[in-house]
């Protein structure tokens, strides 16, 4: 066990805790697909005020996208007493560690270890720390990676072999029909490997989506007055498939809004009609 932390690591932790820089010198475009209007970030926040759940689909390596997430979360907290942050980046079995960090009981370095934090956790740390400062909940929404891996190798039936005490760590999955749009999208993304992988890899994807959707709805039922901002890779939410589809299956009357955020260095050449079906709002960063 190490008795000290190298100064470089301490510096990186301190930098991760700092809020992202202002956006006024950054380049991004926000587009509302229903109206065709270009929006400011403040206008986007106004349109999100009535939403129960906001699903923010990101590209994990988009640094400007992470800054926009933080600014969006911060602005929502300025006008709402409770905004729960739900995250694909934490798995259900680390919820206790997340709660302990939010309560000030453990350090950020311990959260990184116990929470199995992603390699790019510094991109999300400002949002988690803002939640901590404002006494907000953070939901570790995803299924434990070991179970997703197990399903991809052994199939959904392998979940039945787990101890009953593990049941709260994953959601039930309903296998879709062969003409399912999400299955077609998944196979297209896998390319020539789709056939050789077999269906269990897609079933692991469904397990992630179903578990995240169930986690979001549990948080909503626990506090009907909270607004939920869910952060996820945009494959899980684009075209209102994946986690978004699972949310709609489970509770149709929710006011659910989707955002798709991705880098587009050739914004001037953007054909918006090709992206209309992605989400309610599209954010292009460059």
TrEMBL record:
Where the record annotates domain Haem-binding uptake Tiki superfamily ChaN, the positions are 44-247
**Pfam families in the record:** Cofac_haem_bdg (PF04187)
Please report the name of this protein according to its UniProt entry: Putative iron-regulated protein
Record the organism: Cyclobacterium amurskyense
């Amino acid at each position: 066990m190490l008795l000290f932390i190298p100064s470089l690591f301490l510096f990186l932790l301190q930098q991760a805790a700092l809020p992202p820089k202002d956006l006024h010198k950054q380049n991004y475009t926000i587009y509302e697909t229903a109206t065709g209007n270009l929006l400011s970030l403040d206008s986007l926040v106004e349109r999100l005020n009535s939403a129960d759940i906001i699903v923010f689909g990101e590209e994990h390596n988009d640094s400007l996208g992470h800054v926009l997430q933080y600014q969006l979360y911060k602005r929502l907290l300025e006008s709402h007493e409770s905004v729960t942050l739900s995250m694909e980046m934490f798995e259900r079995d680390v919820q206790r560690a997340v709660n302990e960090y939010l309560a000030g009981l453990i350090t950020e370095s311990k959260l990184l270890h116990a929470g199995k934090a992603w390699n790019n956790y510094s991109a999300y740390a400002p949002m988690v720390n803002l939640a901590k400062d404002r006494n907000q909940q953070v939901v570790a929404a995803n299924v434990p990676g070991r179970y997703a891996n197990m399903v991809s190798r052994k199939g959904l039936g392998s979940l039945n072999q787990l101890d009953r005490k593990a049941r709260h760590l994953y959601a039930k999955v309903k296998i879709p029909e062969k003409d399912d749009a999400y299955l077609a999208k998944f196979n297209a993304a896998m390319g020539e490997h789709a056939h050789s992988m077999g269906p269990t890899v897609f079933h692991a994807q469904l397990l992630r989506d179903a578990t995240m959707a169930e986690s979001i709805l549990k948080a909503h039922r626990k506090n009907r007055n909270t607004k939920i901002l869910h952060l996820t890779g945009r494959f899980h939410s684009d075209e209102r498939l994946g986690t978004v589809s699972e949310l709609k299956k489970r509770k149709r009357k929710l006011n659910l809004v989707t955002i798709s955020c991705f880098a587009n260095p050739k914004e001037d050449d953007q054909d918006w009609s090709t992206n209309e079906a992605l989400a309610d709002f599209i954010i292009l960063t460059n």
